[in-house]
Specification:
Layout (H helix, E strand, L loop, with lengths): L2 E9 L6 H9 L28 H8 L8 H17 L7 E6 L5 H14 L13 H12 L4 E5 L5 H14 L5 E8 L3 H9 L23 E9 H6 L6 E10 L12 H14 L8 E3 L6 H15 L6 E2 L2 H4 L6 H15 L1 E2 L21 E2 L4 E8 L3 E8 L2
Parallel strand pairs: 2-3, 2-4, 7-8, 7-11
Antiparallel strand pairs: 1-5, 1-6, 4-5, 6-12, 9-10, 11-12
Helix pairs in contact: 2-3, 3-5, 6-12, 9-10
Length: 395
């Protein structure tokens, strides 16, 4: 069975729709800057990839009535609405949802912890019910009437890539006719403080794969894809944006928050995804790298890419200098960008790059460029040794 992509939806710091995201990519326009909606002392010293819509604006656009909803959930619903509408599907008993998030509704749970720590008031405990990862999936499934199947993936920053892989498996196993897959994460103080405590946030624009990289910029986003068999998509006359042809997830169990220095987990994910797709490394036209801008990740991923592709590497770029690192949403927003690269035959640039990492024999793609793109390999790596690769191919 060929897995067809018939709908895509996205919201990020560079756009509130897929078209807006594409225009920003082509214009080399970053969305990273001073945050205006996030309430944190770090907004004075750090840059963020913040979505420009407020919660109230998203609620209004979605017709969302309840106040008991996190920003993470609203971002999810916004992107999912675009994907479902673009696909032209009717949500019925054969449609499922596999969503992902790394932090659940942490922006909601702040409503409990702030009065608890400042006033020793813990009476607002009910808000913790909107914290767990599954709440977001449940709320958006109810909003769109998805009842056949729901699942939540939470494997840190590889979450959305694993959601895509799980959705593809469900289709091939005949469990569902169509499945909406993707991920979401909103900015909040918990994640900002957490990453700041790890000392991996850059106070300037992040510089993926550059020798002078100093850390990542946190971002927020949501993106979703509608998957179904190519046969079903063609039977109903749907536009096919691309195919999901390969996927793999591995765990190198090296460290809680660091990638292995030899890139072993990433190497295994890429090689197994290529095997799943029935492709050789030379078939890949473009790599959308994980490329966070941290010392550890970029070094490890660079080594892994060299181990897989050798001297004949395809064009490589990280798009995180556009959006910031969107955590669980990263694999989904970058899946959308991979599909756009296939559709538009465009290579997207790696912003802010200056000098190569010592020992690297390659430089990332620096400009928007026309190219014949048939297969895109997208990497997503997360804490806990989680490594995932998805391959997208031209229909």
């Amino acid at each position: 069975m060929e897995i067809a992509i018939t709908g895509i939806g996205a919201i990020s710091a560079i756009g509130n729709s897929v078209d807006e995201n594409l225009r920003s990519l082509l214009a080399k326009k970053t969305g990273i800057g001073k945050a205006k909606l996030l309430s944190s002392k770090h907004t004075e010293t750090h840059l963020f990839g913040e979505v420009k819509l407020s919660d109230d604006e998203m609620k209004s656009g979605l017709g969302w009535k309840s106040d008991a909803v996190s920003r993470t959930t609203l971002l999810s619903a916004w992107a999912m609405k675009e994907a479902i509408e673009q696909s032209g599907i009717t949500v019925d008993t054969n449609v499922g949802l596999v969503s992902s998030t790394s932090v659940g509704g942490m922006d909601r749970s702040e409503g409990f912890f702030e009065p608890y720590y400042t006033e020793q008031d813990f009476t607002n405990v009910f808000v913790l019910g909107t914290h767990d990862c599954g709440t977001c999936t449940k709320q958006v499934a109810e909003h769109f009437g998805i009842t056949a199947y729901t699942a939540t993936i939470s494997t840190a920053c590889s979450s959305a890539a694993n959601a895509i892989a799980m959705g593809a498996r469900l289709l091939r196993q005949g469990k569902l006719k169509r499945v909406v897959v993707g991920g979401t994460d909103g900015l909040c103080r918990f994640t900002t403080n957490g990453f700041n405590s790890l000392m991996i946030l850059d106070t300037e624009w992040c510089k993926p794969f550059s020798a002078n990289r100093a850390g990542l910029n946190l971002g927020e986003a949501a993106a979703y894809l509608v998957l179904e068999s190519r046969e079903d998509a063609e039977a109903r006359g749907a536009e096919i944006h691309g195919l999901v042809t390969g996927w793999a997830n591995t765990n190198d169990a090296f460290h809680q928050t660091a990638s292995s220095p030899d890139g072993n987990g990433a190497f295994m994910a890429m090689t197994q995804a290529l095997e799943k797709a029935g492709l050789q490394s030379s078939d890949i036209s473009y790599i959308n790298a994980h490329g966070t801008g941290t010392q550890n990740n970029d070094q490890s991923e660079s080594i892994a890419i060299h181990r897989v592709f050798g001297a004949e590497k395809p064009p490589i770029s990280s798009t995180k200098a556009f959006t910031g690192h969107t955590l669980a949403a990263a694999g989904a927003i970058e899946a959308v960008y991979s599909v756009l690269a296939l559709k538009e035959n465009k290579l997207f640039p790696n912003l802010n790059y200056q000098d190569p990492i010592e020992g690297n024999d390659w430089r990332p793609q620096l400009e928007v460029e026309n190219a014949e793109i048939n297969h895109v390999l997208s990497n997503s790596f997360g804490f806990g040794g989680n490594n995932s690769t998805v391959i997208f191919s031209k229909a």
